[in-house]
Write a structure and sequence with these properties.
The protein is α/β, with parallel strands linked by helices and about 450 residues long. It has a domain of about 170 residues: 3-Layer(bba) Sandwich (FAD/NAD(P)-binding domain), CATH 3.50.50.60. The chain is built from twelve helices and 19 strands. Strands 1, 2, 7, 8, 9, 10, 11 and 19 form an eight-stranded mixed sheet that branches.
Length: about 450
């Protein structure tokens, strides 16, 4: 049912804006009730920031290998509580339970160094949690150890890690929001790709692609959603686009909703970027290993060695480093990665690497970043954004998740929450979409 040539209906019960994880979850839940629903997606594909691309790699012994590579989210975080784990298996995709690389010793890092790093990070966590328990919401960097101490030598890596976790350095991250995140430390993956999963789940859903929304007119008895392909009237609307689009008013509300826009501005999208590189003679490295570039600066990347045992290195860049490299263009990411890896592994290593893909979420018109973080003092903006602006307009996505923000499953759960709210607004019994117990 997913065709960019699908005409817009004149009127539906619910318009869902955005065909990422949250939008697909909302539409799937609504479709079970017989409610008429249409999903409007600005891109030419389903998935949003869950996007799997395929690259075919010719192997040195002959033959070729198909590589599904996740450009955005790649981990089923908190997998023991993540509803998408069961869904992945239900649709016939493969859940890989191999422990993540960050759960084991980093390649080339001594036991003593790992212990020192772990102790420094745990101490930072304890200081932040104590401050939040006192009712404080401050920049995370306020709790760094002095840089001239043994613990403080790791401050650069703290910010590098924050770039991966939050898409921004700790100085830009609310401590109250940081503590609110729920991590059960159980992490799985989808062998065929997380983006493949969301695209698969979206196939039964009516989606109009290449259909960016510019304005939501709330002045009449029905809401008028205006797009580049025409307008559609709806009794209710579920908006699932990234916060940066709401904050910049890329989609305008009429009449305006200044509190909604302000809440979105308090939850900007940071940036986490990836480069996938093919590597020759990968057997030199452990399967699903990890290597850090440097420990003394945030201007460094983390490297996932041989994910799924494939002949690939996946490099992660976060925060200011990712924004700066994006400004230089895709090639800058590969050049930076090569430079760091050569420093660790020798000058000949450059010849063994071939770039495969590079993510550019900051430059992507319909994302403008990777995932949300709350600015200091703005932890409450997640609840503010999730609170209905009126009884027929609901906002959902990873940014509105109270504890699983920044994750695909958090977005999925929020989409389902918004669907139930829309059903209530339409007077539809929620139990129509769920099996009853005898």
């Amino acid at each position: 049912m997913t065709h960019s040539s699908t005409p817009l209906p004149a009127e539906v019960d619910v318009v869902v804006i955005g065909a990422g994880s949250s939008g697909i979850a909302a539409a799937r839940r609504l479709a079970k009730t017989g409610i008429s629903v249409i999903v409007l997606e600005a891109r030419d594909r389903i998935g949003g920031r869950a996007h799997t691309v395929h690259r075919r790699l010719t192997q040195h012994r002959g033959g070729s290998l198909d590589l599904p590579l996740d450009m955005g989210c790649g981990w089923l975080h908190s997998a023991d509580e993540n509803p998408l784990v069961a869904v992945t298996r239900e649709v016939g995709l493969t859940v890989d339970e191999t422990p993540p690389p960050w759960s084991q010793a980093a390649f080339g890092m001594s036991v003593d160094e790992r212990a020192a790093w772990r102790a420094a990070f745990d101490a930072l966590d304890e200081r932040i949690e104590a401050a939040v328990a006192r009712g404080e919401d401050r920049p995370g960097a306020d709790f760094f150890a002095p840089s001239d101490t043994a613990e403080g030598r790791w401050n650069g890596r703290m910010d590098a890690l924050s770039g991966a976790l939050n898409g921004a350095k700790f100085a830009e991250v609310s401590t109250a929001d940081y503590v609110a995140y729920r991590d059960t430390e159980v992490n799985y993956r989808v062998l065929e790709g997380y983006g493949t999963l969301i695209a698969t789940l979206g196939r039964p859903v009516p989606v109009v692609l290449d259909c960016p929304v510019g304005r939501i007119d709330r002045t009449g008895p029905l809401m008028r959603v205006e797009t580049l392909r025409g307008a559609v009237l709806a009794k209710t609307v579920i908006l699932t686009v990234p916060t940066n689009l709401i904050a910049s008013e890329a989609i305008r509300f009429d009449p305006p909703l200044p509190e909604t826009v302000e809440a979105a501005a308090g939850l900007p999208l940071g940036l986490a970027s990836k480069v996938h590189m093919a590597v020759e003679t990968p057997e030199d490295f452990p399967k699903d290993g990890q290597l850090w570039g440097r420990s003394d600066t945030a201007q460094t990347a983390a490297y996932h060695l041989r994910p799924f045992g494939r002949p690939v290195i996946e490099a992660y860049f976060g925060g200011d480093l990712a924004w700066g490299l994006e400004a230089e263009g895709e090639g800058a990411f590969f050049d930076f990665a090569v430079s760091e890896l050569v420093d660790h592994l020798g000058s000949d290593f450059k010849k063994r690497l071939t770039p495969l893909t590079t993510s550019m979420w900051g430059a992507e018109t319909w994302s403008r970043g990777a995932y949300s973080h709350a600015l200091p003092g703005h932890a409450g903006d997640r609840a503010r954004l999730a609170h209905p602006a009126e009884s027929r307009l609901f906002i959902a996505g990873e940014a509105t998740a109270p504890h699983f923000f920044g994750t695909c499953h958090g977005a999925w759960m929020e989409g389902e929450r918004a669907a139930l709210q829309a059903m209530a607004a339409l007077g539809v019994d929620r139990w129509l979409s769920e099996p009853r117990e005898d």
